[in-house]
Amino acid sequence: MSWATLDQMDLKGKRVLTRVDINVPMENGTVTDATRIERITPTVKDILAAGGFPILLAHYGRPKGQRVPEMSLQQLVPALEAAFGCNVVFAADCIGAGAEAAAAALQDGQVLLLENTRYHAEETANDPAFAASIAKIGDIYCNDAFSAAHRAHASTEGLARLLPSCAGRLMQQELSALETALGTPKRPVVAVVGGAKVSTKLELLGNLVEKVDHLVIGGGMANTFLAAQGIDVGKSLAEHDMTDTALEILGKATTAGCEIILPSDIVVAREFKAGAENETLASDACPSDAMILDAGPATVAKITATLDAAKTLIWNGPLGAFEIEPFDAATNAAAAHAAKLSQAGTLISVAGGGDTVAALNQAGAAEKFTYISTAGGAFLEWMEGKTLPGVAALSS
């Protein structure tokens, strides 16, 4: 799959409709985490440097076609100006005469922010007429919102079919990282998949066993696989109704030549709280009144040895109840080892989705990974082998 980048577009004097994800957390009118704004800044600055006029398109929350004041993008103007280092003009709608006039009046070095696209129900319906109304405002379409690329909405998919289109710097970075990790990876490839439920990651596991050499399963999901093999997991979180599915995935892995790595030792406790009294046991020795809350040191040793021999790592989800000590030990140790190998240049590591970023940040490992994706749903759907509408539209 190929797509154009900003470098292949003539941007001088052009109004560039740029789809971004600035769904940032707010508290009392102030942005509390500007990560998503920081990540789109290179795209905006490159458009400005090339003599173009960036016009930002974004949604905020789920207003469901209504004008919800607390979901207005106007409140983000100060944070955007601070990140971009330039004047950000705001238009009170993303279509219509006001938006068109604001775009026409843009001066060199200015950025235009259009109001929340989801104030219009036609956005999520991918309405062609609505997409055409947005298209009237610009000359070029740039998608820099990989995190919204799994949605076939007017501003993520419909618009790309109406204007000359390209990927922004963040989108380009995401796609390149994922292509490196799953498309044409250096082998051996290891995937670490953790989390609570097998049922939420069925397609992911089914796709990975055919694409990776080693699949580490952790968290509550691992308990389901242990239980499926007839092992007593006590009061642990497990989906006992997924036994047949778990066995099917194990069989599929064997056929594909993928090694499944499950915990060989476990950390158990009777209470789910920080500092709870706990013990490390063999994976088949969980007391009936206890819960498995983490993988043990022997399992971590197996994972790190597997990483030592690997060339590529894809990570999604924690290995245990990482939110509370001491049940973050396995996640922290494995993540730190992956980070060390990544920094040494022997491992390409790509991580993202769900609690993954939080777990790796807590482990102090995130910044040392090759690439961290903040795109939850889109990252997972890519790992599941699905076609993302927003990406496919850029490639057509």
Main features:
396 residues; alpha/beta; Rossmann fold; six-stranded parallel sheet; 15 helices; 17 strands; elongated
Give a description of the structure:
The protein has 396 residues and is an alpha/beta fold. The protein has two domains: 6-172, Rossmann fold; 185-383, Rossmann fold (3-Layer(aba) Sandwich), CATH 3.40.50.1260. 36% of the residues lie in helices and 17% in strands. The protein is built from 15 helices and 17 strands. The chain has helices at 35-49, 77-84, 97-104, 121-124, 128-135, 154-158, 169-183, 202-208, 219-228, 243-256, 297-308, 329-344, 356-362, 376-383, 389-395; strands at 15-19, 26-27, 30-31, 53-57, 88-91, 111-114, 140-143, 165-167, 189-193, 214-217, 259-261, 265-269, 278-282, 291-295, 312-316, 348-352, 371-373. The chain has a six-stranded parallel beta sheet, sandwiched between helices. Strands 11-10-9-15-16-17 form a six-stranded parallel beta sheet, sandwiched between helices. Helix 9 (219-228) packs across helix 10 (243-256) and helix 11 runs parallel beside helix 12 (329-344). It is elongated. The mean pLDDT is 95.
